[in-house]
Amino acid sequence: MRELGLEITRDYRNKAPHFVSVLNGAFIFTADLVRNINLPLTLDFLALSSYGNAQNSSGEVELLKDLRLPIAGKDVIVVEDIVDTGITLNYLMGYLEARKPASVKVAALLSKPSRRKVQVPIHYLGFEIEDAYVYGYGLDRAQEDRNLPFITSIKS
Ligand code: IMP
Ligand code: MG
Fold first, then answer.
1. N- or C-end of the chain: fewer Cβ atoms within 10 A?
2. How does pLDDT run across 21-37, given as a tens digit for each residue?
3. At residue 152, what are phi and psi to the nearest 5 degrees?
4. Which residues, 6+ apart, have CB-to-CB distance to 23 below 8 Å?
5. Domain count for the chain
6. Residue among 57, 92, 137 to mutate when testing ligand 1 (max atoms within 8 A of CB)
């Protein structure tokens, strides 16, 4: 968190980035990340869900909760818990870009590159991981275990 926060603080010097946190999974990551950023910033949330069972994106993304604040002209930083197939983030990038922000970058805690179906940009990445289902630290396992203060995995 300290390293990512420092990098963002340096890159956005003299700017005031607008964070868009993707609920629910990114709530703890977002809380820790923004506390490591030494800049004026604003923050908003949206909630996305992909249809299908708990461990596989179906490819259809549903907007469960919309942004509250306009993003036109803003330097947006998306905060996502994990990029798996990339389908969710790809949908979100299209959604945000249609609203004419000045820029959009992505901060993701985790990425599983071996699972990618759609190529998406990740500008600030915590950790690259192998193909395993992970949970804890905000990430769920069938809506449970988000409160675990660490990340653990089920081997697939
Ligand atoms: P994608 O659309 O396949 O990239 O999936 C992205 C979304 O699925 C993430 O925002 C997570 O909410 C969820 N997800 C993907 N992999 C995992 C995992 O290993 N643990 C918990 N949630 C996951
Ligand atoms: Mg998510």
1. C
2. 999 999 999 999 999 99
3. -135, 175
4. 45, 46, 47, 48, 64, 65
5. 1
6. 57
Tell me which residue range forms the domain holding 95: 2-155
Q: How far is CA 127 from CA 83, 109, 138, in A?
A: 11, 6, 15
Q: What does the block give as tokens for 148?
A: 């675990």
Residue 87 is encoded by which pair of tokens?
Answer: 């389908």
The 3-state DSSP class for residue 79 equals: strand
* CB-based contact 85:116 (threshold 8 Å): yes
- Summarize pLDDT for 39-92 with one digit per residue, the tens: 999 999 999 987 655 566 667 899 999 999 999 999 999 999 999 999 999 999
Q: Which residue has the tokens 């506390």?
A: 35
Protein residues with CB under 6 Å of any ligand 1 atom = 25, 50, 57, 80-89, 133-135, 139
Helix 2-11 with 27-34: angle, nearest 10 deg = 60
